[in-house]
Structure formats: structure tokens, C-alpha cells
Amino acid sequence: MAGGRDALDGWVAATALPPLTVATGTEVLARDGTLLRAFPVADGRWRLAPGPVDEGFIADLLAYEDGRFYDHAGIDPVAVLRAGAQALAAGHVVSGASTLTMQVARLLEEGPTGTAAGKIRQARVALALERRLSKAQILDLYLRLAPYGGNLEGVRAASLAWFGKEPRRLTPAEAALLIALPQSPEARRPDRDPQAAQAARDRVLTRLAAAGALSADSARAAMREPVPTRRRDFPALAPHLTARLAAAAAPGARIETTIDAGLQRAAERLARRAVAGMAGQVSAAMVLADHRSGEILAEVGGADWADTARAGFVDLTQAPRSPGSTLKPFIYALAFDDGLAHPETLIEDRPVAFGTWHPQNFDRAFRGTVSVRQALTLSLNIPVVSLTEALGPERLLATLRRTGARVALPGAGAPGLAVSLGGLGISLEDLVQAYAALARMGRPVSLSALAGRAHPREGQLFGAVAAWQVADILSRIAPPPGGTPNRIAYKTGTSYGHRDALAVGFDGRHVAGVWLGRADGTPVPGAFGGEIAAPVLFELFDRIGAERAPLPPPPPATLILPNARLPQPLQRFRPRDAAFAEAPPGGPELTFPPDGAQVEVPEGGLTVKLRGGVPPFTWLANGAPVMVGTRARESLLSLPAAGFVTLTVLDAEGRSASAQVRLSF
């Protein structure tokens, strides 16, 4: 007796077990934990980690398949004796003696079920499994591996495919069907033979009621519930984003994102509606983020990822495209910050040559003398090119790169003035990230759809005053028909040849961008950002609902004055060549503090020194005047806070000098 037991123990101990690690598909989850998209395993099977499973289903499964699951060691001798007695009495097999552990053994090895050798092998592996694993681990393997027809494995994949829901809560009818299908998954497939599926389900319900696991009334009600007759698609929200995240992760990863599933659905519907009826394979892309946290809430890479005619597989949030006029706000912010201009500064919109380049406005008309506010509101080209010449196009590129944007220039040489009108490549996601910095009063942030990955970036692009002044102008641009005025600050853009139509905007919490065009970059005649992208942007903001926030009030240092009351150098913008041609030599030069210095400021204020220039002088900090009309070349400036600050001095001839320093108190 003892020898036989020892021999059995040795036989079980020597069992070569199959691999116990079961591959499951990668999952990408929304911010609330719901499934955005799942991916099959390498061989194409849909097999997912079970996750939370309805406790009633587990109880019914054990009651039907293996009532003594927690009492046996892999083989149930009571079930073996019962099955043998029933077979002898009836002359054929009436019930099986296979335990749930034996079924797991068969599923792990994908072994045969109808041969004596196969049954012995299953029994041996089952005994070995019980020694190696806990009951919970064995049950988990069954919930992962049980077949449910076609390429469906595991209770979660089955529940999603047949019921379109997670298996957290199942009706008695649903639970019974999921118990019945693994016994004969192909013959009972509901989409192929719903009558066979229903009959098998009802037999499970009848047996559960007879065993007292289900009331007779509940069983009868469950039998009246129809079985599904088609297999549902697995969730595939944010298909471009989820594919990108899954490709960068290990197989079987569980990827948590910041995507809001409700906003994502609304954005995808909006994208499809935006291109409906548009000829020429036009697609759409969108990015919506919370600029306070940097979390991306919705991202649409294309109008329909399955539409090959529209090249739906191309992720158009990542493709470098021309931004058109959407970069103009950054040029104005830099000009305000440097003291080159103020929203009420007068500037010329007249024919002018920049070398051999003669830029024109979009409508080929000129407005003469306009305010800077009007120039940005009307998206005039001549004024912004003049400001870019004064700033230097490299300054714009450096500012964009400090936001984290990847900028592609058309040639290998130095950037030209055409960058101010969209003569470069930038992705929609990077453009929205740049606008997030504008919305955050000049403080850049890295946007991300991965939970915990968004973060503020170092530095300050321009002062809060300059950022607010630009946002104030953009918020007063007339909205598209039906849009709410003064709700968001936004700018539209149309690239050369009508290849790209864009609209980007923000409120006090959210920032978003919309792009429409063709994936191959060919023109879309008549496509203007203001006409086709702006209405979509406003609709996207309408989907935010109660979470939307108003734009912030002006910072305390903001100079809100009409043109006539501005300091004389800010009343009219003078191009660099005009200033140097008409003014006497020797513009102002900052001698202290030097550019890039870190300065500890004493209680009395910061001492600044200059040489050259024609008094009186105007001093600005981050674009806001802090001292006006002084004739001294050494002054004491009272500055409000520590951190990065751009100091600018203007002389009576409109010439300027600037330095960016870091202050500590």
C-alpha cells in the first residue's frame, strides 16, 4: 500500500508540465479603466487576462463542471465512481468524470479528449498541477484558456465578443451560455447555430435549477432570453494611438492612458461627420488635452482607420504638415515680450520687399496702417513678417523647440522669414503642445496620453503678460457660425495650395487642434481653416461640457492702454532697417545684468546699467513696463517675482536691447 502510494507520488512528481505562463493580448485602457482597445496574441487568438469576473458565474461554473473542485487533488474519485456506475447501468457514457483541473491540463497541452492515453495524461498533469498551483491559479488558467468558438479563448474575450460587455456582471442566461460553449465550442457557436447554443444553454440552466444553484423562476426567465446571433467587434477606440502605444510596449502589456472614453467617442464621430460628403479622400485629425496637467483626453489620427481610400491607417496627428498661419501668435508673443510691440502699437500693412521676397496677404489686399491687434485678428502677413525680421526666424524655431515640438525645415540652410507663414513642418500633436504653453501663460508642458507621463517642461517661453495679450486678441476673433463668442482663444491656418486646413485653440483648461486635408498631402481646392476646421474645433469644445473653464484675467502688470497713452517707442512699430537708417548711431546696450546671468536681487530692487542709446529710456520686464521716461543709465527696477525674466530697454528712437536672466530673492 505504502509502496503504491510512493510510486504514485514519484510518478506525479516526475511529470513534465507544459508551460504555465499563458500569453494574453495587450490591452489599452481609458482613464476610468474601461477598455479602449485589445490586441490578439501572436497566433491571432483573442485571449485576454480575465480581470474581474462575475462571482455568480464562477459559482455556477463550479456547480456545473466540478462541484468538488475545492476538495479533490486533481482527480475526483467520487465523480469517477459515479460516472462508471452510470455507464454500467446505461450501457453507454452518461456523464464524464473530468475535473476542472483536468480540463486545464488538456487546454494547456491542447491534447486529445477521446482516448484512454489522453485521459491518463490529463489525470497525471492535473495531479501535478494541483501540487504546483493553488486552486485560484488553476481557476484563473481555465478562465484564460477555455474555448468559446473560432479564435476566442477565455471568459473575457467571450463576454466581449458575444455580449459586448466585460464579464463583471452577467445575467444567468449569459453565464449559462458561457458555461455551455467550452464543451463543444464550434458546434454550439451562437453565430452559426443559435438553436444549438440555446439548447445547450437551457440544459445548463435546467441542471443548475435542479441542483439548487438557481431558482426555477430564474431559470425559466433566463430561458426566455434570446442568445446572441452575431459576434461583436472588440473595442477599438483611438485606434491610431492605441496601435502606437501597443507597438512600443511588451506583448501582453496593460497600458493605462489618460484618454476619456466618452470624449474619444464624441471626437471620432465628429471627425467622421466632418469629412462626410467631402470628395477627394479628405481625412481629419484631432488632439484634445488638459493643458493644466498635460494629459491628452482624446486623439483622432484619422476620420476612419479602416477606410483605405482615405489612407485611414496613417496617423495624421504625428505627420509633419505645414501649420499655415497658426504660428503667428508665437511671433506676436515674442514681440510683446521683447518690447517691440503692444497690441495697440501701429504697424504697416503695405507692399514691401524682404530681399527678393514680396509677401502678400491671403486676399492680396493691403490695409495700410493697422494696430497689431488688427493685424493678428485679420491674420495679415506683412506685419508678422516684419516682426519676424526684427526677432529673427531662428528665435521662432528656438521657441517652438523649447515646447518640445519637432520642427522640420524644407531645406538644409538657415531658416528664412517664410517660417512665419507656415514654411516648415510640425505635427498636429506638437502644434497643440506648443499652444498649451501659450495657454499656460508661456510655461511649456509635455503632453502625453500615457498615465503619469505628462509633465511641465523647464523654462518660460515668454512672459505671462505677453501670453495673455495674445490670448486676449485670439479670444476676440469672431467664431464660426453657431459658435459661442469669446469662449476660446483660437487661430486658424491654411497651408500653401490648400493642402492643410487647421484650427487650434484653448480655454482656461483645455487645448485642442483640428486638421483636415488629404493624407498624401495633395491640395484640397477651396479648403480654408476658418471654414472647415474652425467649426469642428468649436464643436469639439462643446463636447467638453461642465469641465470647461474660462480664460484667465490679465496679470497685474498688463499695460491696457490706447495707442496714444503708450510709451512713445511702443506707439508705432519701426522695422529694424528703418530704425537704424533714421536714428543716430549707438543704440542702447545692456551692460548689467548680462544675458543668461543668474542674479540675486537685494531688497531695494535690481540694478540695471546701459550704455549708448538716446534718452529717455523705457524698461520692460517680460513685456510689461516697469520704468518709463528715465534719463539715467543706471536704474533700480522693482521686479515682482523670482524666476526667468526678459529685461528690455527701449530708447527714444525705438531701438532696443534685451537680456534674459534668472532672478532669486
What does this structure look like?
With 665 residues, the protein is an alpha+beta fold. The protein has 3 domains: 1-224, Biosynthetic peptidoglycan transglycosylase-like (Penicillin binding protein transpeptidase fold), CATH 1.10.3810; 258-581, Beta-lactamase (3-Layer(aba) Sandwich), CATH 3.40.710; 582-663, Immunoglobulin-like, CATH 2.60.40. It has 21 helices and 22 strands. The strands form 7 sheets. A 5-stranded antiparallel β-sheet has the order 7-6-14-13-12, sandwiched between helices. Strand 1 and strand 2 (35-38) form a beta hairpin. Helix 2 (55-65) crosses helix 8 (172-180). It is elongated. Residues 83-88 and 578-584 have low confidence and may be disordered. InterPro entries: Beta-lactam/transpept-like (IPR012338), Glyco_trans_51 (IPR001264), Glycosyltr_51/Transpeptidase (IPR050396), Lysozyme-like_dom_sf (IPR023346), PBP_1c (IPR011815), PBP_C (IPR009647), PBP_transglycosylase (IPR036950), PCN-bd_Tpept (IPR001460). In the N-terminal section; belongs to the glycosyltransferase 51 family.
Summary keywords:
five-stranded mixed sheet, Immunoglobulin-like, 665 residues, Beta-lactamase, Penicillin binding protein transpeptidase fold, alpha+beta, 21 helices
TL;DR?
The chain has 665 residues and is of the alpha+beta class.
Mean pLDDT: 91
The main sheet orders its strands as: 7-6-14-13-12
Number of strands: 22
Computed CA radius of gyration, to the nearest angstrom: 35 Å
By helix and strand content, what is the structural category? alpha+beta
CATH architecture of the largest domain: 3-Layer(aba) Sandwich
CATH homologous superfamily descriptor of the largest domain: DD-peptidase/beta-lactamase superfamily
How many helices in DSSP terms? 21
CATH topology of the largest domain: Beta-lactamase
Overall 3D form: elongated
| Unreliably modeled segments | 83-88, 578-584
Strand content: 15-25%
